[in-house]
From TrEMBL:
Annotated signal sequence range: none
InterPro entries: Acyl_CoA_acyltransferase (IPR016181), GNAT_dom (IPR000182), N-term/lysine_N-AcTrnsfr (IPR051556)
MF (Gene Ontology): acyltransferase activity, transferring groups other than amino-acyl groups
Alphabetical UniProt keywords: Acyltransferase, Ribonucleoprotein, Ribosomal protein, Transferase
Listed GO CC annotations: ribosome
Organism this protein belongs to: Arenibacter echinorum
N-acetyltransferase domain sequence ranges: 3-171
Protein name according to UniProt: Ribosomal protein S18 acetylase RimI-like enzyme
Length: 171
């Protein structure tokens, strides 16, 4: 298995929108009200919004490939583009998604290793992320890798207010 990661560019917009929608549906559709879920998908993965994010110098999307297959993606935020903390010493891992058929193969752990390498290269002190409080599998995964809870924040799926735990990894 050969994994590699590459930055997304404007020409990747359609593929990014499709992958974002697909992985979010796989992960969370069953746990949300259909109308709220559709509203969120249309907002978060609309091409106009993704284009703006791809053009933001403080946000970066990366595609993850296993051999020649596109298997996931991440989104990193720095400086004022971070959703909550906005700490110049931090990088936010806003999104990390792997297609369901590729989960359980060590890809997520590999991705986090890449994120840590990026953060170190930029002289950041920590990586942080938000994870839904009702996602015990993800919480356990992050905690196993050294992340710890330092707070929480509201996260809206449509009009449904949910709670994300804020997790931090000091590097």
């Amino acid at each position: 298995m050969k994994l590699h990661m590459r930055p997304c560019v404007i020409k990747d917009l359609g593929a990014l929108a499709n992958l974002g929608r697909r992985t979010f549906i796989e992960a969370f559709e069953k746990d949300n009200k259909p109308e709220d879920f559709k509203e969120y998908l249309d907002s978060a993965f609309g091409e106009e919004r993704l284009l703006k994010e791809l053009q933001d110098i403080n946000s970066s999307y990366y595609f993850i490939h296993k051999d020649s297959s596109l298997v996931g993606y991440i989104k990193l935020n720095e400086n004022e583009s971070q959703t909550d903390i906005k700490d110049i010493d931090a990088i936010e891992l806003e999104r990390i998604y792997v297609l369901s058929e590729f989960q359980g193969q060590g890809i997520g752990e590999w991705i986090l290793g890449q994120v840590i390498s990026i953060a170190k290269a930029k002289n950041r002190l920590y990586v942080w992320l938000g994870v839904w409080e009702h996602n015990p599998k993800a919480i356990k995964f992050y905690q196993r890798l050294g992340f710890y809870k330092f707070g929480n924040h509201p996260y809206f799926i449509g009009k449904d207010e949910q709670t994300d735990w804020l997790l931090r990894l000091d590097i």
